[in-house]
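S., here's the first fold you wanted:
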Amino acid sequence: MDHVSENHLEEFAAACRRVAAFGLVRCSSGNLSWRVKEYMLITATRSWMGELTGEQIAVCRIPDGTVLNEKRPSAESGFHFGILRERSDVNVVLHFQTPFATAVACRGREQKNFFVIPEIPYYIGPIAVVPYLNPGSTDLARGVIEAMKGHDLVILKNHGLVTAGKNFNDVIQKASFFELACEIILRGGDHIQFLSEDAVAYLRKKY
């Protein structure tokens, strides 16, 4: 662990507490990972992100998944490893469960358009959907990894959300903006006006 210092652990723990402070997770729900060179820091299983300390962080090698500090990583570590391996542009992966976005994930009717505010096409882009698969399963990990190859945010049906980005602020912002969009959609109902295709294309090009 030559490249993972106490400062890295402290920075990661502080980021986890920020995720919780933004209301993106509750109690032991959700998990966060961070690329540090060839290593991945990830929340330990059953840890509460709002109270996370350095003692609740698993340090792993990204290429082979070896755990280096005897901490048990989150049950969802499979898709964290996979996303970091597949996406060289990604350094942070967040699995979160906000009320409105999770409500959308639990709806029987699939929501396909989330472009209600400029921030969604600008910062996130199209949203992928993965059907319900058992939490922590290999099937779920495969589904998320495949979906995240071409998307920055994926809905896990009846489960929650996963987003990825270049740093902690990036994933917190994406999760927060997506939660806002889902709240607008659910509160607005049939009265919502979505952005036009031209507006979406302009915003995607600007990004």
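And the second, which I think is the more interesting of the pair:
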Amino acid sequence: MSVTSASLLGRLHENTDPTAWQRLVELYSPLIRGWLRKHSVQDSDADDLVQEVLTVVLRRFPDFKHNQRAGAFRAWLRSITLNCTRDFWKANRIRPKAAGGTEFGAILDQTADPDNPLSQAWDREHDLHVTRKLLEMIEPQFTAKSWEAFRRLALEGAAADQVAKELGLTVNAVFIAKSRVLSKLREEAAGLIETNE
């Protein structure tokens, strides 16, 4: 008996969810495009590169094995993005002006080094972006009151008794709403967002 994975990565590996690839594209296209634009890649080149990166991810995904180390997928995606960008750049298909006069190739090399601040910035941007996008994607699965209770308590840091009073809920119901949303977020994010903690 096979168990269907709740995580996006699991559904992609199992090929059980026809919308999983679309969700991956929706999740990662803006992140990759934003990173490229930040490093002075023109919009048309960025669009071509995003398509190239996602094509490589699709082609190579069956070979991706999560090694259970924090950030494995994030590092794999970063590597593909950098390699595609480097190939695109070396073929003179893009001619970005790197910020501060730094050579574009040096930026790519620095971003590939996990101990470099540029690489660490990629990781932070990835995790924030993916968390925001996954929250947008799962919001419709909750009632408006449950979502508002989660938002006020978890995202805004409001006191549970205050949220309960504002929404006409019990304090327990507020905590349950928060717990259910966070549980769904963890399910979706498994393998995508990980920390060393």
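Why I say that: The first helix runs from residue 8 to 14. The chain has two domains: 8-141, 142-197.

Talk tomorrow,
H.
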